[in-house]
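Suppose you are handed a protein chain with no further information: no name, no annotation, nothing but its sequence. What can you learn? This example shows the usual starting point.
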Amino acid sequence: MSAADYRELRLRDGRTLAYAEYGRADGQPIIYCHGSPSSRVEGDLFLHPATLADLGLRVIVPDRPGVGRSDFQPGRRIVDWPGDVEQLADALHLESFAVIGESGGSPYANACAALMPRRVKALGLIGCLAPPDVPGIVAAMAAPLRIMFRLARYAPRLLRALFNLNVRMMAKGGEKAGDRMAASFPEPDRTLLRRPEIRDGFMNCFREACRQGPDGAVWDVGLLARPWGFDLSTIAVPSHVWHGEHDGNVPVMHGRYLASAIPNCRATFYPDDAHLSVPLNHHREILGSFVAAGLQTRRASPFDRDSL
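A reasonable first move is to predict its three-dimensional structure. Written in structure tokens, the prediction is:
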């Protein structure tokens, strides 16, 4: 299945949650929290069907509220996301599962691990964000990301206008727009983004995030710039951070902070990698770690009391 072949779930409050699945239907389940601004389409970029089949994994990538094809949720917070994930897991009859958060999806994955300890059996964080109230964390970000965070929190109307402008420029600029985008990234991301399938896949993540307009994507970014509402030290599941030392989007100090703040957390820092090259070049190592850990996740029977 690709992100184009998405499925929908009607949640208890009437909202629609869209998601895509990758890998083996009978595989060990992983819920993947996409970046921001991004969408379930990210699975087409970072999840390789042959690798998932070889490793025996099933990866589910839901669109967050207001993003892609999922309905907007007024006033939502990061700590509301585990509730949606739990309903998705119930619908798929997953009693337990692992969670991966990539970039802006990492706070959402952390929230699942902190607030769903009975069901989340492992946590993986790729190019991950640290909480914005940690001293020096926001100041260490690249200027464009700092500006985006500030606009999302204090001037969301302006960021909506900028997101709309980006969508139009991508539509009109084609390959040239992709080349300009690639030029702003450090190596080795710059070289990777010159490959048409990666350049187009990366831009498609943003376009799909704004499918319903930019409101959902702007809200998603704004939540990353505010206190998250839970304590990282309460995460009790086995955790792993993967981060590139040359990450120009999310500086490696974010990954180092999370590795120190989350109990029972291992970390791998790649000296020659940046933001995109970690999940693109090391996907088998990252996904294989969930298999190597021998974690016992279980598919619940539709007649299990907890799945009703």
